[in-house]
Amino acid sequence: MLYDIKKAIGGRYVFYTAVNDCGRNSNRDKPVRQRGWGFMRIPGFLKAGDCIGFAAPSFGCNIEPYKTAFGNAQKKWKEYGFCLDIGPNCYEGKGIGISNTPELCGEEINTYFAKEEVKALISCGGGELMCEILDYVDFEMIAKTEPKWFMGYSDNTNLTFLLATLCDTASIYGPCAAAFGMRTWHPAVKDAARLLTGVKTTFNNYPAWEKESLKDEEHPLEPYHVTEPFLMRRFPDEDVCFEGRLLGGCLDCLVSLAGTKYDRVNAFAEKYGTDGIIWYLESCDLNVMGIRRALWQLEHAGWFQNVKGFLIGRPLCFGEEMFGINQYDAVTGILEKYHVPILMDLDIGHLPPMMPMVNGGYGVVETMGNSISISYQIAW
After folding, report:
1. Contact 326, 295 (CB under 8 A)
2. What is the model's pTM?
3. What is the number of other CB atoms lying within 10 angstroms of the CB of residue 88?
4. 247-267 pLDDT, tens per residue?
5. Domains in the chain, please, with CATH?
6. Cα(376)–Cα(366) distance, rounded to whole angstroms?
7. Which residues contact 310 (CB under 8 A, 6 or more apart)?
8. CA–CA separation, 177 vs 69, rounded Å?
9. Which of 245, 59, 214, 89 is nearest to 152 (CA)?
């Protein structure tokens, strides 16, 4: 692992064409400045000696087990040869549903995107009310500065998603800072680091997932407690291969953005219309009825035009049924009308492990039996 990260390449970004027919007779290796009339800015890979910034636009790491885990994560990143820049809100807990006031959280994000020496930014954690910082985030400035990776998940959807739709800048829906403090990195955590460093751009599902975590205040460095075998649900139940531009995140957050001034999804879909969109979605607080209502709302907001397929992560309400509706009915009852692949119970979201998702990036998805791979068409 250490050798892999330290040999990762760095550099500026270029833009790659779409592949056709899942790689057959494609021109994926031809770099271009734009596709259609839009282009996605892909940040450069991290290289040894680069500076990683940490910020807390949602919760910080001020309480256990996150405080100790974050400290150990810093130690590990330093061992891999990176410099660190710890944001002022990382150990704060003054805010309501976030680390600090919305103004100060927005200011921290603006500062770290503007810092030239910071080459990537990792969020300290998820939370509840990151949406409230959006009025204080300078998206115009971010769109004009050199792109850098931002990584986080859950409440961080408020930024990972909008970086793509507002700033044409790819981001990573992946582990937050404290996850890198686990005693032994799970392969999924290694994969997130390998994506940041450019060592790896194709990812597969993992053999098992965690239903009950062993991590708590007294055991802050516990790795994922994977006990449940991976079992993908496919609708229709057949091997598929499709490609497009990935977009998505936590459904709880996305439904709050729909219809606001930050909702530019229809313009995004038009701009990248020749690519098509692969939606990846997962949920935290929503029950099965909430999931179905959220999908209905996004559908009626016009979000699913040009869809190529749906990648659905295991919901936190896994196994729940209400009024005869389960987690599968909640999704397929709304989405099956699009006649595209719907792949469910994937390694995305709140029941780890999770494959790193390049939000805004172009990818090829392929399934074979109970296995899935996602290959991102990004290179430097």
Report:
1. no
2. 0.91
3. 15
4. 999 999 999 999 999 999 999
5. 2-11+18-24+33-200 (3.40.50.10740), 208-376 (3.50.30.60)
6. 12
7. 278, 279, 280, 281, 331, 335, 338, 340, 341, 342, 343
8. 8
9. 59
